[in-house]
Amino acid sequence: MELAKAARAVRENAYVPYSRFKVGAALRTPSGAVHVGCNVENVAYPEGTCAEAGAIAAMVAAGETEIAEVYVIADSAHPVPPCGGCRQKLAEFARGDVKVTLATLDGAELATTVADLLPGAFGVAHMDRA
Ligand code: THU
Question: Residue 128 C-alpha to ligand 1 middle, in angstroms?
Answer without folding.
Answer: 33
